[in-house]
Structure formats: C-alpha cells, structure tokens
TrEMBL record:
Protein's recorded name: UDP-N-acetylmuramate--L-alanine ligase
GO biological process, one term: cell division
EC number assigned by the record: 6.3.2.8
A Pfam family the protein falls into: Mur_ligase
Amino acid sequence: MDIKTAKRIHFSGIKGVGMTALALYAQDRGIRISGSDVADQFVTEKILTKRRIEVAEGFAAENLNKDVDLLVYSGARPQNPEVKAAQRLGIRTLNYAQALAQMVSDKAVIATCGVGGKSTTAAMLATILSRTGRKPSFVVGVGNILGLGVPGRYQPGKLAVVEADDYVAVSGIDNSPKFLYLNPMITIVTNIEFDHPDVYRNLEETKRAFQAFFLRLPKGGVLIGNIDSPAVQSLFQSFPKQGKNVEVIPYGFSPQASWRIQKVVMEGGRTEVRLTVAGIRLKLALRVPGKFNAANATAALIAATQLGVAQTESIKALEEYQGTMRRFQPVGIIRGIEVWDDYAHHPKEITATLSAARKWFPNRRIVAVFQPHTYSRTKALLPEFAKALSLADEAIVTDIYGSAREAKDPTISGRDVARIAAQVNPRVRYCKKDHVLEYLKQKTGQGDVVLTLGAGDIYRVGWDFVRK
C-alpha cells in the first residue's frame, strides 16, 4: 500500500516538527490523522490543536483504532509499544524518512540539506513559490512558517519543497541517512559540518553521507551549494567527475561563487543584500537578520530561478518573508528588554546567530541563554561551543537537553560547557534551567537583548520571561 492511498494514519511521536509538518500534508490530501506523544509541551501543539488533530498522551496499543491502516513513527522513539502493536495487528509501519519519501514521490522534489539553514531556505523557497502562484507542497521541520501559516502543506502544483535530514532514519535499526530515501531533482546544501557524533565518527564520514545524497540527483538535476563551507567546496570539486550531467551552482561570499554575495548591510530592522550573477547586479531586502540569512535567501532565489520564476517576482516574495518559529524569532519586549529565540545548537550556528545579533542590535548588551542539545554533540564539540559563546556580552549555560535517542552521559554537563567557556569569556556562567527566569529578572535591564539558543525546550524561558 502506498502511503498516499491510506485512509487513516496514526503518527506516533506526532509533536516533532517534521512529524507535524508531514501530518498536515497528509491531512490536506484528505487522509484522516491521529497521533500520540509524550506530555511535554512542544512548539507544534498550537498548530495541531488548530487543525483539530487528536493527540493521545503517551504511547499505548490502545491508541491504534481499528480503522488505522498505517502507522508512521518517529525515529527518536522506535521502540514504543505502538510500533510493536501495529506489527502484531498487521498494520503497516513506516518510519518518518520512509513516509516522507513516499508522500512526495508524485512531485518534483526540491530538497534542502545542511547543518544550519536548511529549514529557513526551504521556508523561503516555499514562500516564493506560494506567493508567485506555483501552488507548491512543502514539508519543513519548524513549528510554523510565518506568513504561510503552516509548516507543512499539500497543494495540486507539481513541486514539493522538503527539508532533508542527514541524521539516520532510526538509530540502530535503520542507519540509512534520512535524506537517502528522497529522489530530488534540485538539491540545496547550505553547509556541511560535523554535527552528529553519535552516528558519524568524523567530518569525513559526514561528507560521504552528503556525497551519496548528491549522487541521487538524476540526469539534468541541479545541485546548489554554499561554497563558503570548506566541506561543500571539497565535494563540489570532485562531484562533476562523479555526477550524471548535473548542473552545479555555487553561491556565497567566495570569489569562486557564480552567485556571489558582495555586501550585506543590516540597518533599521532590515537586511539589504547585494549580489552579482553573470555580471548582473541584484539587490534583496529581507526582514530577517544575518549574513547566514543573506546566503539562505540567495539559495532560495537560485532554486526559484531554476524553476522558471522571474527574479523580480522572487525578490518581491523574499521581501515579504517573515521567518519561522525558532529561527531568530522575536518573542516580545518586557521592561524595555527585547527577547528573541533561535534554534542554534551547533557552534557554527551559535556563532552566526550571535554575530547577526551584534549587527541587528548595535550598541546593545546581548545576553545569551544556551541549552546544549545531546550529550554526544556537547562532548565532541566542547571547545567550539566555548569559543562561540564568547561572542555574547553575557552567556548563561543550562543543563544538557538529552535526546530520546541516546543515554545520559555523566561525564559531560552544562556546567562543563560553562567552565570551559568562562576561560574564553569570564562572563559565561552556569545556571540550572529552573533558576534562569529569576536570574534574568534580576540581572537584565532596559536596552538589553536576551537571546535563547538551543534545540531543546529553552524557548519556554523566553516565553515565560515575557509573560510573567
């Protein structure tokens, strides 16, 4: 049975951002949806409630109603009793990566991958294609795409924009990188970094996974990549020898980029981007900050151009792009203190976000609240985290947010991150998450900018600070 012919799908672990986006896509196709997950609060809960998708608390065989004919499960929780019950009852099961690939198999797929930027680039491209009447489908792993109103949507157009993940489909069970299930016609790679030490031994292994994904492009496909990333640059140098008549388009600040970003100016709450391609000068105006967003917008513009969208139309659509949840998202202002939130969880992402904050808020005191994500990543990249946090005027490090896919490692902690980081920036300190709110109340004042960072639930601190 093809997933698109299912009558009722149960999403086990539905609150995850990718799972929610895929569930919305399936619901748009007329498929009845139910789901289950842990009781913890997720950024997706508001959209699930709005779409009237029933979510059972906890995982249990009883959640599988008699009319469920397919179970889609999150790779983060493969051993939950719903998967075993489905197998016992003869209900077909698919992990998220398999389900996504099947769901978009009747579309021309544009896939965005990389460590940092893939969600935003996908959201920007979905915005361009939507604003210019292409009626695209999309599945983006964010809580919401502001301006489009959903993170996932099915529409009758021929195109589907999807976020492609390099993490394995189901650790220990299906160790294929998620993106290897996809068959894109256009692939965008925003960068390549060593980000998953629990599944890749080093950067070279990570690069091999991306290389395998690039080779899935068909004859006549297009590979668009940020040449400022050394790992992307090295793969691009060898790819033409291995590729099957695939067009390779490098972009970035580098002189080697065919779409070259010449200048980025952030002023008055806007980012002006000037770039050149084939001797032609283009200018973008964005509502979101940072050189990294200038690069993301450039990638989206290239892809849209490849798809036949007039550049003037794409540029106008990018001017209307409002961002996504948890990507340099404004949370609110309280007592003259601005609170922002970002998903940055890798040292390169933290560096990019804090550098953007410096330009976006000149002469303001930047207070970063960082929650490390996964024990393996924190341990492997500890020195890099310390250096990245030095860019804040003051940084608070909380306890590590562990993933369901790994066991707790008592040899690494948030306190260790703060201790090492304080050697670079003495204004870095450790604070239990439960105490951060009180600390911010006492230690921040008018004109300060508080920026919560991390892939866990640290965003709640910013929300609570503004509310309370």
